[in-house]
From TrEMBL:
The keyword Transcription does not apply. It comes from Waltera intestinalis. Keywords: Membrane, Transmembrane, Transmembrane helix. It comes from the Bacteria. The chain crosses the membrane at residues 21-38, 153-177, 249-270, 276-296, 303-321, 327-346, 358-377, 383-399, 411-430, 478-497, 509-530, 550-570, 582-601, 727-749. This is Uncharacterized protein.
Length: 758
């Protein structure tokens, strides 16, 4: 509260410079708001304007000499074809400047008859052409072209003005605060260092492309699914409506996507696909830095050590590899929350239980576990195992009344806050039969690392993760990095030579536990760790071990614990050698970090392939990684957009599909129930109703798990098919919302009561 009172005392709003800048900001915002209107031109081009070009290597059809002003457009090519993903439509213009025209095109599909993808045009042109390339199979015809103008660029401009205005106002306030209250050089140095850290950790994002990575396409489709789901009226999004050629995919139910809503927001604003992804990763980097600095500074009660640990953690080899080379966003999200979990446990187990602040000790843990559950359950599984081990080590403290209540509150509130995700997840896992439930036979030990993997110094870009087959050639960079390895060795030396006299009891225990956990987690990454034997014990261990997929995931825990050890070592060095010793240690760790992490980033930027995907339609929607969330036995290669399949006695007219919503007029002229198969993948929750009477029709599935509607004999009417969340899912959503509001209100009221009493 003292900080807020100081800000108010500055009276920023009364300063002339601020008022002038604020006036400019308001004028720019008004300009952006005005630009939102009048952007609705529609340009029609009939089929007579199509030119057929025949070449030796490739045939195509074009519509040329299109004139457009700068803007964001939707390209709707009307066509007929008898193939899927063989022919491709794209916009071209050889006369515009560099990157002034951006689009990724779209494939043609037998069941769609129309493209609908974005075009970003940043300068006026009279020479735009639409080209449809023939893929060598089947046939296609173009029946026309519609180009629809949108207000997308105006929305982007307005968003940019708002964000830059907020950043400028914060910077202005910071400068005035410094002038009035004289921030210390160390404080300003830390702030400047955190900004530099964000810059260096985001180097791969400062190009107009995204590094190619193993799971990049999958996570980009997850973002697309959220965006499409919101536009289709879902919230929260349960089924991604355009995934798998419009059949839909329930990734959101099995795989927490809370943070991905931020990335989807960028896409909804109008940014291109790749720009949205880069902005989202920039946001994740900033959030990781802030959470790490807050947590490590609180643990070690020293801003320098907190900053050092933040650098080591943010630039850790494993985090950089998972974020930019593997594209494993789930693990990146898990890494984001781990420092807060470390701080939460440290506070619960070391803070004086008589302290009034102890009653709030469960809040950081609750926030962290809630975020972890809603981001990456596999990381949660690992953290859960080490949490059990930690509680066994500190069993006496666990059963202190105050500590036990804090831990119990953490569990209860984490479950309540995540109920909106956990209830649907549990419902499907108990009710359904999915691929993810039938992978217990997948072994992982042969995917383990070799010891040299962990102890590398100069890591390089690589994609080999099957070391049993390929050895270590072109290895994916998976290891601790030389800086964290040195920190563990220094701590071992301090223990061996008994050089820990300047540490408090709690800090020494932190070093011992974190060091032990780091070594254990590194051992669990190795190919010699007996994963196969553990997996063979029983059905539960088989499922748990198989779900890990890659033993190197335990480097997540090892990295966090090694960073904690580095902080403990820094605390002891500061105690022994004071500021000069800490400075020397700080400089040495920075140099070692540069050796591993910055060298790795340089190499990945020089040798990695890049993606430029402006609209998601250009890369298709069929990629589902390991297909874990398909009904078991479903063949995804058969999912193609098509009109409904029905028997001869059923007439279907006025068919319309909008995402996972279908409306059609059905007439069953026969004397028995007929089946209509729809291009939707069946998940529990689909319902079919008569539009007029509300009569519910029975939903069944085809042999390949497509949604089928049973049409009774003699029925005639308009049928609506859509996904409806069960009532208890909705109750869970309400419970999570009320729990969040209750938590915020409860803490605020308690703090207010304390201020009155003090």
């Amino acid at each position: 509260m003292e900080f807020i009172q100081k800000i108010r005392a500055l009276q920023i709003g009364k300063r002339k410079t601020f008022r002038r800048v604020l006036l400019v900001e308001i004028l720019l915002m008004l300009l952006g708001i005005v630009g939102l209107f009048g952007r609705n031109e529609v340009y029609e081009y009939p089929s007579e304007g199509v030119t057929v070009n025949t070449g030796v290597y490739q045939d195509n059809m074009t519509i040329e000499h299109i004139s457009l002003k700068p803007g964001l457009y939707r390209i709707q090519l009307h066509y007929d074809t008898d193939t899927n993903m063989k022919n491709f439509c794209i916009i071209e213009d050889d006369t515009v400047g560099y990157r002034m025209l951006r689009n990724s095109g779209e494939h043609l599909y037998q069941g769609l008859h129309e493209t609908d993808y974005p075009l970003w045009l940043l300068q006026k042109s009279d020479n735009i052409r639409v080209t449809v390339t023939y893929g060598g199979e089947g046939s296609y015809t173009i029946t026309g072209l519609t180009i629809r103008e949108t207000n997308g660029l105006a929305v982007i401009f307005l968003f940019g003005v708002v964000v830059l205005s907020i950043l400028w106002n914060l910077l202005y306030t910071y400068v005035q605060y410094d002038r009035e209250y004289s921030l210390s050089v160390p404080q300003k140095g830390i702030h400047f260092g955190l900004v530099l850290l964000l810059l260096f950790s985001s180097l791969p994002l400062l190009q107009d492309a995204m590094l190619s990575s193993g799971d990049l396409g999958y996570h980009m489709l997850r973002m697309m699914g959220i965006k499409d789901g919101i536009l289709a009226g879902q919230f929260p999004v349960r089924i991604a409506p355009k995934w798998q050629q419009g059949y839909g995919y329930a990734s959101s139910i099995f795989y927490g996507e809370t943070l991905l809503y931020v990335g989807a927001l960028f896409r909804l604003i109008g940014f291109s696909y790749i720009t949205s992804y880069r902005l989202f990763l920039l946001f994740i980097n900033a959030l990781t830095i802030l959470i790490a600095y807050y947590s490590f500074r609180k643990i070690f009660e020293d801003r320098y050590i907190g900053f050092l640990c933040t650098v080591l953690y943010t630039l850790s080899v494993y985090r950089l590899s998972k974020t930019f080379i593997c594209g494993s966003l789930g693990e990146t999200f898990g890494i984001l929350f781990l420092p807060l979990i470390a701080y939460g446990f440290y506070r619960v187990f070391t803070q004086d239980i008589a302290n009034k602040e102890y009653r709030y000790s469960w809040i950081p843990l609750t926030i962290a576990f809630t975020g972890l559950v809603q981001s990456h359950l596999l990381t949660g599984e690992q953290v859960g195992a080490f949490t059990i081990l930690l509680c066994l080590i500190l069993i006496k403290k666990v059963f202190r009344k105050e500590t036990f209540c804090s831990l119990a509150k953490t569990v209860i509130y984490s479950v309540l806050l995540s109920a909106w995700f956990l209830v649907p997840f549990a419902d499907y896992m108990l009710r359904g039969d999915f691929t993810i439930q039938n992978v217990s036979g997948r072994t992982i030990q042969y995917r383990g690392l070799y010891l040299p993997n962990i102890l590398f110094t100069f890591f390089r870009n690589g994609y080999n993760v099957f070391y049993a087959d390929n050895g270590m050639a072109e290895s994916q960079p998976m290891g601790m990095g030389i800086a964290l390895t040195v920190a563990l060795l220094l701590w071992a030396g301090m223990l061996f030579f008994r050089k820990t006299a300047h540490l408090r009891k709690e800090e020494k225990a932190l070093g011992n536990i974190a060091g032990g956990f780091a070594v254990l987690a590194m051992c669990m990454c190795l190919s010699v760790f007996p994963w196969d034997k553990i997996q063979s014990l029983n059905g539960i261990t088989a499922m748990l071990v198989s779900s890990i997929q890659f033993p190197n995931r335990f480097l997540t825990i090892a990295t966090l614990c090694a960073v904690l050890v580095a902080g403990v070592v820094a605390k002891e060095i500061k105690g022994q050698y004071e500021t000069h010793g800490l400075q020397l240690y700080f400089a040495g760790m920075m140099v070692l970090t540069l050796c591993s992490s910055i060298y790795l980033m340089d190499d990945m930027l020089q040798t990695g392939n890049s993606y430029r995907i402006y609209g998601e339609e250009g890369m298709g929607s069929g990629y589902i990684a390991g297909a874990e969330y398909l009904p078991y036995g479903a063949d995804a290669t058969l999912f193609w957009t098509h009109d409904p399949y029905a028997g001869e006695m059923v007439a279907i007219t006025d068919y319309h599909k909008d995402g996972i919503k279908i409306e059609m007029h059905c007439q069953n002229r026969g004397d028995k129930t007929e089946i209509v198969e729809l291009p939707l993948l069946y998940y529990y929750g689909y319902r079919a109703y008569d539009k007029i009477t509300g009569q519910e029709l029975t939903i069944t599935t085809s042999d390949n798990f497509a949604v089928c509607v049973e049409v009774p004999a003699g029925y005639e009417g308009t049928v609506q098919v859509t996904f409806v969340s069960p009532w208890y899912w909705r109750v869970a959503e309400v419970v999570s919302c009320l729990s969040l509001l209750g938590l915020i209100a409860g803490v605020a009221m308690e703090k207010k009561r304390e201020r009155k009493n003090s």
